């Protein structure tokens, strides 16, 4: 992994016109760095995601997971390097090309980002806004074909019977299913999910993650998903990409990941305890051998 001092020196110029590797990758990060007010949130991030792969981003709070996801659909512009989506350079996209890019990318958020007073059906319909002209008020103002399609998406996520219900009366698990259905209305090829189950109980989390996985497999979606639940991540994704202070420090197929590789993701340098471990509120449990007293002391976050 690059040291802090070697960062950014190898970044490809932002004027590059071709992706750095051959076809087949849905998303490519090439030397991506992001500086916010003098602080590097991402440092020299480079990896490719093949179409159809399900990638989990792991890392402690502030490690850069959300920032990385936000670069994929152009919500952030990198300070160094490039992001390519299906071979198209994302850096600096604006207006119509940016809207076109975003129409291919569904985004699911921790806090759902739904409109509470609207029905579940209407929230799902807003996912089709790139396909229609002008604002709509009320599900009935959308073309019938779209209403039927939105109902189908609600059926896919098991919520057809809640179509007419106000969204702010649904449970957390149901809300995230509505958000998934809305994302699917975009006909995305890529799904970004930023801690999609962090505000759900373990059972709802499991159901929602299973649903995302099933839909991704059926529709051939590429998924990039940040998670804090380490055990869930290890049982769910194809590949784990671990970030630490903005750097990729782990990139491996899920079946090969060991706990020894994951724990350092949550290791933060502290002046008086350089080896102390801090973990977020995860479901991670320790298999044998049992943790050392030093390790337990470090789990105080
Ligand atoms: N718009 C911004 N302006 C300034 N700093 C930012 C901005 N967005 C993110 N950062 C900083 O970038 C770093 C990475 O933040 P980011 O939100 O990507 O972390 P994260 O891994 O998603 O954390 P969490 O697990 O808590 O969601 C943090 O230090 C954060 O304060
Ligand atoms: Mg985040």
Task: Give a brief description.
With about 300 residues, the protein is α/β, with parallel strands linked by helices.
Descriptive terms for the model:
globular; binds magnesium ion; disordered C terminus; alpha/beta; four-stranded antiparallel β-sheet; binds adenosine-5'-triphosphate; Rossmann fold
Description:
By secondary structure, the chain is α/β, with parallel strands linked by helices. It has one domain (4-104, 188-298): Rossmann fold. The protein is built from 9 helices and 10 strands. The strands form 2 sheets. Strands 6-7-8-3-9-10 form a 6-stranded mixed beta sheet, sandwiched between helices. A 4-stranded antiparallel beta sheet has the order 2-1-4-5, covered by helices on one side. β9 (239-244) and β10 (247-253) form a beta hairpin. α5 packs parallel to α6 (202-219). The model is unreliable at 1-16 and 273-301 (pLDDT under 50).
N to C succession of SSEs = EEEHEEHEHHHEHEHEEHH
Oligomer: single chain
Radius of gyration based on Cα positions: 20 Å
Distance between the termini: 26 Å
Q: What layout of secondary structure does this protein have?
A:
Blueprint: E1 25-36, E2 39-50, E3 54-58, H1 65-72, E4 80-85, E5 88-89, H2 95-103, E6 105-109, H3 120-125, H4 144-156, H5 172-184, E7 190-194, H6 202-219, E8 222-226, H7 230-234, E9 239-244, E10 247-253, H8 259-262, H9 293-298
Parallel strand pairs: 3-8, 3-9, 6-7, 7-8
Antiparallel strand pairs: 1-2, 1-4, 4-5, 9-10
Helix pairs in contact: 4-5, 5-6
Bound molecules: adenosine-5'-triphosphate (ATP) and magnesium ion.
